[in-house]
Amino acid sequence: MVVSRLIAKLQRYEGWFGVAAGLLIMVGLYMGLVTSSPDYYQGEVVRIMYIHVPAAQSAMFAYTVLFGGSLWYLWKRDPVVDNVSHAAAGIGIFFTLIALITGSIWAKPTWNTWWTWDPRLISFAIMLLILVGYLMLRTFLEDKEKEATYAAILAIVGFIDLPIIHFSVEWWRTLHQPLSISTRGVAIARDMLIPLLLMSIGFYLLFAYMLMVRTQMLYLQHLLEAKRGRMLSKVHL
Amino acid sequence: MKWFYIRWGGVLIIAAIIGVLGIQRYYRDVTAISPDRLLHDQPTQTVRVLGRVEAGSIVKEGEGGPVAFQLSGQGATVSVRYLGEASENLRDLKTLVMVGKWNPTTHIFEAEKTSLMPNYGFVTAAYLISLLPMGIFLFNMERKVALLYILIKEEKVYQPEEPLENR
Amino acid sequence: MKTGKKTAIIISILIVLGGIGYLVFGNFGKNLIYFVTPSEVVAFAPEQYGKKVRVAGLVVKESLKVVPNTLRLTFDLTDGAEKIPVAFEGVPPDLFKEGQGAVVEGFWDADRTFHSHMIMAKHSEDYMPIEMKKAGGALPKKDFFKTLKVE
């Protein structure tokens, strides 16, 4: 009964994550949109950073969870772990889209273009496509175990894109600015760093909360399907 | 399900309050009018005028002194005399906001402050495009989970070790 | 599995794979060199004249000149080693100014001028309030010329 205990735990603790995420994001939004100063060079548009960066970080974190979950699934073959990876992919795609769209809105007034074929942008778009492929794969196959295995392999192979996204701005010539927080130090003034950190932590917590809710959703759906006799094979009760 | 709707009702109310406060602030602090509106309305109070500096129109009256130039937008052009401290934003073909008063006798807009173009449109768009779908996504997901729990209880698929919280 | 569903699966897998392939092999390969630098432009062979390229550099201070009452302007772009003159027509982006990074799209011609209709501003990774900048504040950022990766 490990599984039902996990679900009961998720139920009990998810609220804390939700509330903490909500509070941090609210304070972060207030500081980011109202009290922090405009940037010396970009002016007010710099405020888009407070949502763009956390969304991109959470998207990459979601992919990392997907990667870890996929490895674990291939090793232990635990269907609930597969539900966790599947949930992480669904949320990851959402954050990836937010990062791409807010980035595009930021790019127009700063760079003067909505989109350009810059290595950072391309590698991020590839992550979106990998996630789309992953979710498509999850709807196709009749054999749920095979489906989970193929999906896990795809997720593991696609993980190679993550270091490319992160270091693209350091390795190649890009229009996108280099990393602000790196071995060089922190190149963001404190006034702007605080709302950014609050939003980042808030988004990580929000991701954790969403992951808990979505894992339950997928698990319950599978449970229901199993009960209704469509796929009895792999759900342990 | 009752708590679920109460919780989301709370979220909606908070979002509405923040939205109203934001709109109020926007109208108080950051709206700007075009040179065309300035010439038409000739307001007497301090206003913010958004326009583009005409190429080659900047004339400096001595180092650090007032700067005269033409600001255009929406098909109209006004002469501006800027008395504030030197700003590197004041350059040819730059779109910016000048804060000041219209002088009806000299027909010159006397500005004491510049401000960058209020890109609040972009900022607002970015936040709305992210936060609204996020709320809808989360709402749908939570609703689905709550409904699934009810469905599963009814079908008696799952007997939890500890009683499930009443959702 | 029904044939219709199977076809749908194959088509959508092909679309995703095609998309990734297009990005990886088409654009990524080409855009690993997202822009060239003024030093490389100066060394262009005549057959590269008139071809569309992107050049990144720093807009040289006090080189920007506008033609009054037109949308034409000229300025110099440098990568620290070489300097090229750029002739631009259009409204420059809001963040375009002297002493800042810019990526210009256009072509290099036999008149040894870069002709462009499109400027993108390349901003650096430091963020600080205006007051801090005025007070001479500086944050640890990568040297701009290093971000161009001049070889």
Q: Order of strands across the biggest sheet of chain C?
A: 1-3-4-6-5
Distance between the termini of chain B: 5 Å
The portion of residues forming beta strands of chain B comes to 15-25%
Q: Give Rg of chain B in angstroms.
A: 27 Å
Describe the structure.
The complex is a heterotrimer of chains A (237), B (167) and C (151). Chain A is mainly α. Chain A has a single domain (2-227), classed as Four Helix Bundle (Hemerythrin (Met), subunit A), CATH 1.20.120. Chain A has helices spanning 2-35, 49-76, 79-111, 119-140, 144-158, 161-171, 190-227; strands at 181-182, 185-186. Chain A has a two-stranded antiparallel sheet with strand order 1-2. The model of chain A is unreliable at 230-237 (pLDDT under 50). With 167 residues, chain B is an alpha+beta fold. Chain B folds into 2 domains: 2-24 and 121-155; 32-117, Nucleic acid-binding proteins (OB fold (Dihydrolipoamide Acetyltransferase, E2P), Beta Barrel), CATH 2.40.50.140. Chain B contains 3 helices and 6 strands; from the N terminus they run H-H-E-E-E-E-E-E-H. By secondary structure, chain C is α+β, with helices and mostly antiparallel strands. In chain C, a hairpin with a 5-residue loop joins strand 5 (101-108) and strand 6 (114-122). Helix content of chain C is 28%, strand content 26%. Chain C folds into 2 domains: 1-32; 38-147, OB fold (Dihydrolipoamide Acetyltransferase, E2P) (Beta Barrel). In chain C, strands 1-3-4-6-5 form a 5-stranded mixed beta barrel. Classes of the chains: A mainly alpha (237), B alpha+beta (167), C alpha+beta (151). At the B-C interface, loops of B face loops of C.
